[in-house]
Amino acid sequence: MTTQTTLPIAEVIPALKAALGQHSLVVLQAPAGAGKSTALPLELLHEPWLAGQKIIILQPRRVAARAVATRLAETLGEEVGQTVGYRVRFESRVSAATRIEVVTEGILTRRLQHDPELAGVGLVLLDEFHERSLNADLALALLREVQGALRDDLRVLVMSATLDPTLPQRLVAPLVESAGRAFPVQVQYLPTDPVGRSEDSVVRAIRSALAEHEGDILAFLTGVREIRAAAAQLSDIAAVVLPLYGDLPVREQSRAIRPDPAGQRKVVLATSIAETSLTIDGVRVVVDSGLSRHQAFDPASGLSHLITERVTQDSAAQRAGRAGRTAAGVAYRLWSERTQPLLPAARAPEIMGADLAPLVLELAQWGADPAALPWLDPPPPARVEAARVLLRQLSALDSAGRITPEGSRLLDFPTHPRLAHLLVSGPDSALAADVAALLEERDPLPSGSGSDLTERVAALRSWRRGEQGRGVDSGVLERVERLSRQWRKLLNISPDNAPPDPLAVGELVALAYPERVALAREKGAGLARGRFLLAGGQGAALPGGDALAGASALAVAHLNAAGAEGRIHLAAPLDPARLSDRAEWTAQVRWDTRTGTLLAQQERRFGALVLEARPLRDISPEQRVEALAAGIREEGLHLLNFLPESQQLRARVQSLRIWRGAADEGGWPDLSDEALLDSLEDWLGPHLHGVRTRDDLAKVNLLPALQSLLPWPLPQQLEELAPTHLTVPSGSRVRLSYQQDGRPPILAVKLQELFGLADTPTVNGGCQNVLLHLLSPAGRPVQVTQDLRSFWNSSYFEVRKDLRGRYPKHPWPDDPWTHEPTRWTKKKTAEQGK
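That's the ATP-dependent RNA helicase HrpB sequence above. Prediction below.
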């Protein structure tokens, strides 16, 4: 079958058909506009190995899935839903005649869970794989497992416009490359990086492009707020200004993608969803703000927050390429040319930095350990464990990590497990549907409306009653209601337009975000109203003057985790008594850094929140040691008082550890700060009896504790190889000063005490010269040397010349080799000689 032979992909279709005929997994690299999404599926529809089965095309975004399906259907002269259909969240257009289904990533995962064999499917195309979304990586891993265990006849085609050159080798799959046909794109940079609001720079570039170039304009901005601000500034131009973002209604998305019916020039203001998949007819100019906004997961707090970053080099190339799809074009890059090579080459795969709770729940249902799947990049184990902790809190996993019946029920709801748990477990299902919908959508209230989620529920219900509040975004409320309606349909309930109970709203939020239940900081602790402690242990604060600032407890939904203290954006009041129902009594023995004391008490806790406390009088030695060790690790070794003897013991051992290396079997123990902190329980624990305060810690004698780390015969060897003192020719025992970094130990001694000594003293069995600090009679260094013989033969005479007039009572012989060494003046030396 030949459908669009004029498209560049036609050149490689024979090679691709041959590869798919012989291999179950193939990689296709084809530039944007080559036809891999909109022509290739039709060319493969009647291949013998497909045997009349279906083709599934995986798309990362709903807007792209609808657009691809529409273009394929138009090529066949059909309506969507006949040979070609699509399935996206809450929407499908398929029929019994459908052979090609374009689906979004979550839809494919659901289908695999219900039908692991993918009965009736012969080929799965993973489009735009270079984006390396979490769901695309999951789909590929599951499909590869299905191929290996259930369906050796199932074909998978991984398609991408830009490609990691190692991908075919990592997948052990043949590569088919299409050169494509891109028209030249002239790239223009700014002289310097811009300052100020990004939308202002975009508007200036659009006005220049309208005057200087032909064709429609596609501008990339960071988000909806910036799109709206730019559109307001462009209200006077002689072109149709159209937004394009994921939450836009389908008819509005189609207006942005299609040519204007009246033939007017278009300016499309888009987020990064327009980078790939979509072909926007007529675009000859691209204006790129150089910025992208996306969710970033913070593993330290367990929270996600929006961040705005510079685009990567591969994203910038994708954006510029939009201008050369159908004719020569121009791309305005709103940054300087010298900044271009400083941009990151590509964004890391989403699996390395995403919230993994949805993935871990899917794999629990699949019955697979995340570590056992054939990933391109395996999920980080620490994040997998954090996801399991959350899923156990949501009752989705049992203590062994197996999925529970409730966890399986959560997967019936196409949303994050948090919101699914809210919908399934909420006592008021109609309110749960409204709250879940509001939490997924943008805020319908204007900026500065406060953080109370209950006000958003009230605004939604007023809007449903036909009442329009001041400043309320009816477009957002329309999308919220559409989503709430879907949840009500799944729950089989009717809407409720009664005024919402704020505490009921808070209880629902607490179901979704148990670690974000928060109690007000104690009054009188020098902390202002509106500051809270979350059950997860983090601090968070409301904006100044917020109506919820006086609440004793909150359930926090939206929180910006950036910075030391999170900023609460959306929350609801919570009845503290509800926490008591889920709190547990635990014995807590911990170090209080604020007071510098060992705190021992019985606490009724919900996460990090202490609801009630009673003194704990008897604690075990193990509890004491564990708590004190944790406190020392948190504050540092400066809590311990290392007296000179202890410091020198550490330096002596560390020096031998460095000097002797692997020569001593078993080696000398590591007494560095890091090693001592790691092993506090072992060496310090036995010496912590009765310790409760910082002052007690400072009084602990550390010398025997450190000596316990030297098993026999190391103490004896220590005295032989790194003695604390050396006896010098005058008979004095002089202390050595060792350095922990292995530098030569210092012997500070008056030079008169060394008369006649030719060789520099040594330690470490004669292998390490000491560093002599030769002192004047007043004890001040006059020479530093490791070559005593050279000093007597040369430098001594300069020193003698400078000092004998200043210290005439001390001997300064012409021949230091034969003079008797002495620690005394001439007179005392003479008297001793009588």
